[in-house]
Amino acid sequence: MSEGSVPPRSSPGSGEADDPYVRLGIPHDSLFDDVQAARQARLEQVGDDPIAASRVEAAYDAILMDRLKERQQGRVSSAARTASQREQATPPPRPVLPALAGMPQLPVPRLSPSPPRMPTLAWAQGRDLWLPLIADGVLLVLMLLVPAATPELLLALATGVTLLNLQRRNGRFLAALGWSFGLLLTGLVLGAVLVGVLNAGLPFGLPLGASQVQGLPALLLLLLGALLIA
Question: How many other C-beta atoms are found inside a 10 Å radius of the C-beta of residue 66?
Answer without folding.
Answer: 13
